[in-house]
Structure formats: structure tokens, C-alpha cells
Amino acid sequence: MHFISEQRLDDGVLEREFTLGEIPGFLWMPASASVSEPLPLILLGHPPLGLRRMYPRLVARAQHSAAEGFATATIELPGSGDRPRLATVDQAGADLRRALEAGEPVTDEIVDALILPLVEKAVPEWQAALDALLGLPELGGPVGYSGGVISIGVRLAVVEPRIAAAGLFAGSFVPRAMFEEARQVTIPLHVLLQWDDEGNDRQAALDLFDAFGSKEKTLEANMGGHTGVPQSAGEAAAQFFNRHLK
């Protein structure tokens, strides 16, 4: 991990931009961060739209988390931003748009090609980022994962024992193979579902929640579309991480 810049935001949060090999990322820490009291860490997931485009929303989430006493970090997803494109994912994205515009069903083949290559490449990169982040003296865990492509969160919850709790957003298509992985998830979960999400299969989201093997799992469903998440949902997620990471 190589830090390439840092700045203090208006609320005192320290923002450090880094690269991990070819992967760009950001780390945010509250003004109170010190090596004497290492902080719990939340990994901020996001859709594959590019870090620069997602930055305003990510930094807002980071600042809210810092106010609760958490450090947060994120990395650029494979095929996004300035990273090399993933041809199979790009083709699947085009096929998805054509199906939606034509009012046709989205096939399993399209969903698999869109999501599975991203999961296979992104999860090891998140684990490598976690290795580097937990090597910093200001960070000590426990670790949470929040938001982003839900299938990435599912896979991380299965394979990464350092993640103690996850807040997931049921806002993306889910390959059928991920339902079996969901049964292996045992950490506490807080799942957000926008009931009228125009780009999401509501029944599939409900089925995925039912499949999770966690003894503690909460589904928060709110009326509205993909971008209509109410402020109260963020407050509920903050309470969830306060319970499980402190």
C-alpha cells in the first residue's frame, strides 16, 4: 500500500488516497484516531461506476461513520474507473440494457456473466486491501463490510473470517450460485431493500435474505426506488455497526 495524498476534511476527518498495486483506494479516519486506541474499520462497498463518480457518496458515508468512531476504506472495483475493462462484464452489461429496454426477462446467463467475474476478481482484492489496512497502527478491527454489490458482500462474508458483520444493499442482480453461498453466511447481517427498486428483482432479494444462514439478520424494507433510500436507513445501519463492531 502506497499513500499518494492526504487532506483534512472540514470536520477534521483525515482522508488518505492510496494505491495497492494498480488498485486505487481511499482511507478515512476520524480526527480522534491514534495508535494508542486502534479503530474498528468498515469497508465501503459501492457499485462498479468508478471511484471518482462515487466519491461524493462515499465521502459522505465515511464522514458519518467517522462521527460514530469508525475508520472506513474503499477500493476501485475491477473494470471500473481507469482500471482495465472486463470484456465479459461489459458485454453482459450491454445485454442487460437491451433486455430491460425491450421489456424482456433478464436471463440467468446475463446475470452470471455480469456478476460472477466481478466477484471472483474483486473479493481477493478486498482481502489484500484488508491485509494492508490492518497493518496500519491506527487500525485494529473488528471489521465490517457495508453496501456495494451484494454478491461481493456475500462472498466476503463466507471466505473472510476477519469480517464480523455486514450491512448489505439488495440493489443488484444475484446469480443463482450465490444463494448456496448465502446459506454459509453466519455473521450478523443488516440488509436494506428498496421495495420499488426499478433495477432489482424484489422476490430474488427476499429469497436471498431467506437463504442467509445467520442467526441474527434484519431486513429493512422501505418504499421507493433505487436512489430513494431514506435518511433513517443510514441511521439504522450505524446502530447495527455500533452494536457489532464496538
Description:
The protein is of the alpha/beta class and 246 residues long. It has one domain (2-81, 119-245): Rossmann fold, CATH 3.40.50.1820. The protein is 40% helix and 25% strand. It contains 7 helices and 9 strands. Strands 1-2-3-5-4-6-7-8-9 form a 9-stranded mixed β-sheet, with helices on both faces. The protein is globular and about 55 Å long. The two termini are 26 Å apart.
Strand content: 15-25%
Q: Residue-averaged pLDDT, rounded? A: 93
Number of helices: 7
Shape: globular
> What is the number of domains?
1
Low confidence ranges: none
How much helix, percentage-wise, in residues? 40-55%
Give the H and E element order. EEEEHEHHEHEHEHEH
Give the topology, please:
Elements: E1 2-8, E2 14-20, E3 23-29, E4 39-45, H1 51-67, E5 71-75, H2 87-101, H3 108-133, E6 139-147, H4 150-159, E7 163-169, H5 177-182, E8 189-194, H6 202-211, E9 217-222, H7 231-245
Parallel strand pairs: 4-5, 4-6, 6-7, 7-8, 8-9
Antiparallel strand pairs: 1-2, 2-3, 3-5
Helix pairs in contact: 2-3, 3-4
